[in-house]
Amino acid sequence: MLPLFFRPVPSNESKGSKDAFTETEVQEYKDSLKTKAEQLIIKGFPEKIMKLNELLETPSFCNRELSDVHQDLNVPIPDPISLNHSDDGPATKKLKLENNLNDIEASGTKVMVLPSGPVPCNKPLCELIRIAKPYIRQLVEDSNLLKMWISFMIPKIEDGNNFGVSIQEDTLAEIQSVESEAAAFFDQISRYFISRGKIVSKVAKYPHIIDYRRSVQELDEKEYLSLWLVMCEVRNRYCSLHDIVIKNLEKIKRPRSTNAESLY
């Protein structure tokens, strides 16, 4: 190994060639992204819209009864506790029995192991979630791609002739809104499982209270409607993005006209 003072110093020529190579790679990435985004708008979005329309007409989403998503919780109702006591007994004994009743009402049933095994997730809803999640994720990815595509085509800041740039910025804001909304759909799904788990734990602790069991059914029905609405919104967002970009495609790609074009 050469001492430090004998090591060759990189020349400016080799450093410049490396920077030029890196810049070329970045430009190639930008060009490929632009091509991919344009193909997505022209061909990919219409195909996605038609596929979502077909999916929403399937029996899983169309004309389905809400009772179809009900599912047994596998939490049996225990036998009632019989407390035999006479009113003629000592006052201390009656007081003790009353305290025991109050303790049962306050603490509920101790849940160590469920006698019939675990409480399953709602299978019909899990199947719908399995179908919906890839479409939601794809909408997030497609929105991100369009966002970068428009960002790359925004010209440098100059005075005047910024009408096309304002169209780019408005379209970019709409795409960012769609991206955020699609990402929030994942949070909605996770919150459903958290809420259902909390209610099911109440059913396990208070199995004799039927309102808790009914609330699970109501939550499952609500989630079914929410999933149907989510798929409709995914389809609608693809339609709105396709519409706004196609209508303003020329201004998005060429936000500023050249001097030669402005003479005619």
TrEMBL record:
InterPro entries: PA28_C, PA28_C_sf, PA28_N_sf, Proteasome_activ_PA28, Proteasome_activ_PA28_N, Proteasome_activ_sf. Residues 119-261 form the Proteasome activator PA28 C-terminal domain. The keyword ATP-binding does not apply. The keyword Zinc-finger does not apply. GO terms for cellular component: cytoplasm; nucleoplasm; proteasome activator complex. GO terms for biological process: regulation of G1/S transition of mitotic cell cycle; regulation of proteasomal protein catabolic process. Residues 23-80 form the Proteasome activator PA28 N-terminal domain. GO terms for molecular function: endopeptidase activator activity. Keywords: Proteasome. It holds the Pfam family PA28_N. Belongs to the PA28 family. This is Proteasome activator complex subunit 3 isoform X1. It comes from Neodiprion lecontei. The gene is LOC107216513.
